[in-house]
Amino acid sequence: MSSPSEGPRPMHDSTMKHEAQEQTVSEQIGAFVEKLTLDRVPAAIVERAKYLILDAVGCAVAAREEPFALTMSAAAAQLSGDGPRGVIGMAARLPLRDAALVNSMLAHGLDYDDTHTAGVIHLTVSTFPVALAMAARSDATGAALLTAYIAGIETGARIASVAKGGFHRAGFHPTSLVGTFACTLVAGKLLGLSPDGLADAQGIALSLASGSLQFLEDGSWTKRLHPGWAASAGITAASYAQSQIPAPHAAYEGRYGLFRTHLPPDLLAACDESLATAGLMQQWELEQVAVKPFPACHLLHGCADAAIALHREGVDPQRIRRIRGLVPAGVVQVVCEPMQAKRRPVSDYDAKFSMPYAVACGLLRGRFALDDLNAEAIADSAIQALMDLVEYAVDEASTYPRHYTGEVIVELDDGSTRRHRVAINRGNAERPITGADIESKFFENFTRTATHEQAQQVLDAVLHLDTLPSAARFESLLTLQ
After folding, report:
1. Do residues 278 and 340 share a domain?
2. Of 114, 176, 185, 208, which one has the greatest count of Cβ atoms within 10 A?
């Protein structure tokens, strides 16, 4: 295999190109995944992939001592018993699927993980744990792990983008729903499945994919399981395909395929199914993955940043009489409604999905960080008084989902108004967080529960992942034991 620094090598497969019009989406995606090699990926994409993995590992280590992490990892261990696969930052070793599930839960649990913008989906937190577990099982190279991860991002992002935010509006969480297909392709790549085998695997995944947004009603923990279930289900689907279980090949566009069963007619009509395979090997969706500057739902980041900007401009919270947040229409049901409940989050998870809390926190404290999500911070009377003043309106000028826009307008006691607009959210591909920024975030997260020396060792390994000879040794390093 040639070095990634040599740049992408054109794919010359006239048969695949000639038959593309006749193939199902699953078959086209399967052909892409089977043929993908790291030397066909631009060096900049390979580098960015490593930084996205670094970000996810930092989030997982930051979460490992949280109550949800201890409880949910213990539940997995009780269910499955011991196994050979490692868990990030933990002594426990679990069976393959359970290790992938727990690692996904850890990486996603703080809601500090990356988001593919157009797909409105968190992919690294499911696809990387699958790549880690599967590559470690066979002791594949770091390059093989990284290639499978990139395949999962490229395919999952496209599948999710077809719905144009519709899955959320229909009450489904694409991180789990679409993530199952992405994880299936990661596992299938590392199992060496043929294009037909990968198409079968996606057909099997269709019967396993799920993920409800009902957690939004009460701030419950089920969302933390979503990427883990995608990881577990994806490994299952690929493994059954390896055993040549017959499965449908029209998993997406079929009469009972993903889009027609999970989207009502109006949202289905807005879909563009061509996006599922558009630009494979020419355009890299990994470039459109946004790294989070705040540990909360990405859909409220624009308003959070706008509120922080007003704080820095000297707006006095005690003089505020009214607050209005402008948000995209597609995010209202997630971060704004029901408004009375959003003004009184009862848990950290509630607060992570509350536009009023993000805005009040930004205006009062000039930040929105992990320490702002503990019970004392949420119950602060000054914060609650500001949340009571927050209203929302639909931002008619929003470019969502291309950008997670936000604007905050405050009315002061003298009748004057101050406003700040965020047209492009920080972390977006058009306003990216750099590799150096990601390293800083990684060290800040990692050293909440581990040493700086351990952080440096992990950083060095992740940023050289494409040259590591042993995924099993890499997995052991991540356990910090």
Report:
1. no
2. 185
